[in-house]
């Protein structure tokens, strides 16, 4: 799907960590909007999306001048105390347009010079592997989290048809691991998957995070309910997967392939 792209010149780039991200001093969004337009994305219901006439997933604002802003704001923030950064909370930092614009890469370049105490990079895109050279400079001050909601491509296509295919995400996890970048596989939101999924992940990562709509949307599942997600499960006859207790099933499956201390649940899995 093509997105409407606009260049913007924001006045600030670092936001205060709050709510679900209260464990972070700051969040960092190189873009506004998201071309992946996942059906379950709760950002659709947040002011950033509701004030916009165009549908979520069809527009992306490119934040020009981000690196210069970050350099100033990071220097100031570091002078005040510990700086932990979550990138990104309301977009994916590896938008398709990032191939050309390199806004995220420019921010990472700043953070290799003025290093935060910790940087968490959250994405669904294999493009993240382009920046392995910069992650390696941050050593253990960075963790790259690749979302893999399911191992079933038919399920991925049903719930999030414009996000990158699963195979590329798994391959990217492997490349990050081989390069020595701290990583985690994030199953969020938990979607229907095969019995082999935990074994597939265990070959690639030693840390997984599991989250669902009921724990992870910041409102006990109410925000997600307003998106009408249940009909997507009904269309597939998989309603049993849309339940607050389903994560237990996945947790038990994961326990066969991972030790308990490798499995993180909901908010705790995203903490610095
Ligand atoms: S990738 Fe993230 S921000 Fe983008 S639409 Fe999907 S859930 Fe929302």
TrEMBL record:
UniProt KW Cytoplasm keyword: no
Record key words, sorted: Iron, Iron-sulfur, Metal-binding
Domain Radical SAM core span(s) in chain numbering: 20-261
Signal sequence coordinates: none
Keyword Metal-binding among record annotations: yes
UniProt cross-references to InterPro entries, sorted A to Z: Elp3/MiaA/NifB-like_rSAM, MJ0683-like, rSAM, rSAM_sf
PANTHER family: SLR0285 PROTEIN
Protein name: Radical SAM protein
Annotated source species: Halobacillus naozhouensis
Lineage of origin: Bacteria, Bacillati, Bacillota, Bacilli, Bacillales
């Amino acid at each position: 799907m093509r997105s409407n792209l606009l260049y913007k010149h924001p006045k600030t780039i670092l936001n205060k960590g709050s709510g679900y991200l209260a464990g972070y001093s700051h969040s960092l969004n190189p873009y506004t909007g998201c071309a992946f337009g996942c059906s379950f994305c709760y950002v659709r219901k947040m002011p950033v999306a509701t004030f916009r006439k165009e549908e979520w997933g069809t527009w992306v604002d490119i934040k020009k001048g981000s690196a210069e802003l970050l350099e100033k704001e990071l220097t100031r923030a570091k002078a005040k105390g510990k700086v932990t950064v979550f990138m990104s909370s309301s977009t994916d930092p590896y938008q398709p347009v990032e191939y050309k614009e390199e806004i995220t890469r420019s921010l990472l370049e700043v953070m290799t010079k003025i290093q935060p105490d910790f940087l968490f990079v959250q994405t669904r895109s294999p493009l993240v592997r382009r920046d392995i050279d910069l992650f390696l400079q941050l050593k253990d001050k960075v963790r790259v989290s690749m979302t893999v909601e399911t191992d079933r491509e038919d399920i991925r296509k049903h719930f999030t048809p414009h996000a990158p295919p699963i195979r590329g995400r798994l391959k990217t996890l492997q490349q990050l691991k081989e390069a020595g970048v701290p990583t985690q596989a994030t199953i969020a939101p938990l979607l229907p998957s095969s019995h082999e999924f935990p074994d597939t992940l265990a070959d690639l990562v030693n840390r997984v995070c599991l989250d669902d709509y009921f724990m992870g949307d910041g409102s006990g599942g109410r925000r997600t309910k307003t998106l009408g997600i249940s009909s997507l499960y009904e269309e597939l006859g998989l309603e049993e997967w849309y339940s607050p207790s389903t994560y237990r099933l996945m947790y038990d499956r994961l326990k066969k392939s991972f030790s308990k201390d490798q499995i993180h649940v909901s908010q705790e899995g995203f903490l610095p």
